[in-house]
Amino acid sequence: MDTSPQLLKGSLSAIILKLLSDSQWMYGYEICQKVKELTSGQLKITEGALYPALYKLEAEGILITKTQVVEGRARKYYSIAQDQQGNAQDKLAQIGHFLYQLQRILTPDDFIKLPAT
Predict the structure, then answer these.
(1) Distance from C-alpha of 83 to C-alpha of 91, rounded to nearest angstrom
(2) Distances in Å between the alpha carbon of 40 and those of 10, 33, 35, 44?
(3) Mean pLDDT score of the chain, rounded to an integer?
(4) Residue 20 class from Cβ within 10 Å (0-12 exposed, 13-18 middle, 19+ buried)?
(5) Which pLDDT value is given to residue 24?
(6) How far is 93 from 100, CA to CA, in rounded Å?
(7) CA distance 57 to 64
(8) What are the two backbone dihedrals, phi and then psi, of residue 112, each rounded to the nearest 5 degrees?
(9) Could you identify which of 12, 19, 63, 80 might form a hypothetical disulfide with 57, taking C-beta atoms 3.0 to 4.6 angstroms apart as the criterion?
(10) Which helix (H) or strand (E) is 69 found in, with range?
(11) What sequence ranges are listed for the domain Transcription regulator PadR N-terminal (predicted)?
């Protein structure tokens, strides 16, 4: 089943923050390939969708960048700003809580009640 582009677009910030919290520095194409790898090809992020999300997180001060020349071409790497690590973890926790609640609605019989957070 193909994933709706709207669902994917709404999830990009979470995907980016999670990958960068695990890998420190990544460039755009690398992020696209990592998502494809982790989802066995089920989720494919286009560069046209990815870069606006990266630019938005950078404008918000959550991401920092550095540029390196690789094989004669400039490559822009992204990382979570040191002073934003906690903020990024809070955003991921919020998204995780939301997904948990959504899953409870979609499949209520499959859930064991967990203490409220």
Answers:
(1) 14
(2) 20, 10, 8, 10
(3) 87
(4) buried
(5) 87
(6) 10
(7) 9
(8) -95, 135
(9) 63
(10) strand 63-70
(11) 16-82
Which tokens belong to 7? Answer: 């669902």
Collapsing DSSP states into helix, strand and coil, what is residue 42? coil
Bridge-based pairing state of the strands 26-27 and 63-70:
unpaired
Coil/strand/helix, residue 40: coil
| pLDDT at residue 20 tops 70 | yes
Cβ count within 10 A of residue 27: 18
State percent of the chain over pLDDT 70: 85
* Second-level CATH architecture of 5-110: Orthogonal Bundle (1.10)
* CA 18 – CA 21 distance, rounded (Å): 5
The pLDDT tens digits of the residues spanning 36-72 come to 999 999 888 988 899 999 999 999 999 999 999 989 9
Which pTM does this prediction carry?
0.79
Q: How far apart are CA 109 and CA 36, in angstroms?
A: 31
